[in-house]
Amino acid sequence: MLLLKLIQSLVKTLHSEGTPGQVAAGLALGSILGLTPLLSLHNAVVVGLIVLLNVSIPGAMLGWALFTPIGFLLDPLFDAIGRALLLGALALRPLWTALYNVPVVPLTSFNNTVVLGSLVVSLALCVPVFYGARLGVTRYRATVAERVRRSALYRAMTASKLYALYRLFRPE
Amino acid sequence: MRLFRWKAIVPLLLLGALVAGLWILFADRMAKGTTESVGTTLVGAKVEIDRMHLDVAHSRVEVRGLTVASPFEPLENLLQADLLVADLEPLPLLEKKLVIDRLAATGLRFGTPRQSDGRTVGQSDGVMGQVERWGQQLQVPALQLATGKISLDRLDPAQLNTPRLATALAAHADSSRTAWVSGLDALGTQAAVDSSARMVERLKGAKLTDVKLLGDARRTLEQVKRTEERLTALERSVTSGMATLHASAAGLAEARQRDYALARGLLKLPGLDAPDIGAALFGRAAVQRFQRALYWAQLARRYMPPGLLPRATPGPRRVRRAGTTVHFPRSNEPPAFLLKSADLSLSVASREYSARLTGVTSDPALYGRPAEARGTAPGFRLAALLDHVRATPRDTAAASLADVALPSLRLPALGARLEPGAGVVGFRFVMQGDQVQARWTVTSDRVRWVRDSAGGRSSIGDVVWRAISGISTLEVSARLAGDLDHPELAVGSNLDRAIADRLRAMAGTELAAAERRVRAQVDSLTDGPMSAARSKVAALGGEVTGRLGGQRAQLDQARRALEQRLPGLRLP
To answer: A95 lies in a domain?
Structure first.
């Protein structure tokens, strides 16, 4: 079921009216949601950006869905990176101390090894994810998109209610 | 293409409003869950709350029906409180810090019964595990008079220290021997002596004008002297090493004395000295109280550490990995947690008392003042001070309670139960760095003795029962002092002499025989390893000293022979 929804989301995203850049930007922002622990304050900002900026929301949903399992898998790595940054890097200690004592910032839980490690990695991956996704969407649309669009499966998916809801927020 | 999706602002605002609404609806429940979870982790036993209300407008939190289970007893609560009202400072909340200006707690009750086991920490875990292990190392002699049998548990050689120390000493002697023999071989004494002998032969009939030969002779003499210096250094090393080995060999005797005491503890009777009787009767109860005090002191040290270094704590429980949360305290900033003052209204033994708590904080160095607890009332005195402001923490607590019904004390050793009635109980605990001093006293002049109906009877048990059942006063004093890792426990009571005298009269001969059997068992397990280790040390001393002496003599002779041939070449 989950896999079907993912495929549905993937197909819809690839065939949306959004430009490859909008889809890729949505995917890059969604990857932050997927890679970092969801209930963190910085993710409220990311969600705000996804909704307010003219990026592909299905792209963001797809990015979130694709990167969530990767986030789980990479948690030990995030933990190690966060630990190195928070406890290992003495040069950064004044920065963490300052941030820890500034209002609101501690609410982001930046001082948690997994949150910080995953945020750093997801921000670093944003750019390659964006360019990679843009290239992929462009190539897809130029090659197999039209054949998929004519298939019965695609027509069934686009007739669903979810698709109608999606059209409300489609990129302009 | 536009950058912003303006039509999404309204849905976004609606989403924000929905989140805020949900928070208002469920904030109390979430805060209750978080408080229970954090409290349970901190205490090591279940913390339960009936109702919790966050009054955001007045920065106030109300907790009704707080129950904290005892981390020590399965069916007992540590405390229960009817109502707690906390006034918070709002601004530190934005920094995820909790500063409580004032806390009022009413209806505090201690030691109430509960239906289910509230302990969450296994005995081998964390601070509780450390404290359990600490308590087990305090040796309390066993006493079993109820059945009158003097039985001896099987002596496990692994329990004895002497064989282990003897084996270690033998291994040390072997490794020292290898090192010293290698050192002797590496000196090159024989080469220096041979070279000297050859030079003496060459010098026979030599002329003073033979400058080359004289230079060679000088170098040979220097070589001999350098070898002598190295030999002297090795001698010093051997002397010091042998002193250590001899001290260790002498220490085996002391270790065996300790093993005798350990093995005697396997007898269900202590020695016939009065202090042993006191320790056997009340030692376990005293250790239990000291363990509890130590548990709270260690928790305080864990959660209220001195200094301002970053502190790592386990991250929050979630589906994703919890990770580690690091706190970065900074001077002149609020601590992560601070309870400025708390007024407590408590009930002990059906009487009402009040107490005050100040300065409880996660970062004592930031707050700059120690945490204090104080309470006074007729017949009640409580004072505690946790000073973690400086690098070496100092924790002190003293409490006394008079004219209250003291809990009964089971004395399985005597097959009896002691009902102390109304009396005075006092407790004092001081821990500075890793030094600990504690005292527990119980005094009562209206004690009642109840003999257990279960279990066997014996003539010894009957005699001891007749001796103690006529005693109507009780004075128990237990002291603990010394290094936290190896403190000394001393327990005494007014029953000791009475029981010891009766025991000596009744069971002295049998006890002495049992003790002889125990010593024989220990001897049989320790004699072999001790003799082997001692003979190894003695042989090593003779061998190495002999070889050192021989080489010294050879070098002396070679040096003298050279110097006689070349009196003018003697070096300053």
So the answer is: no
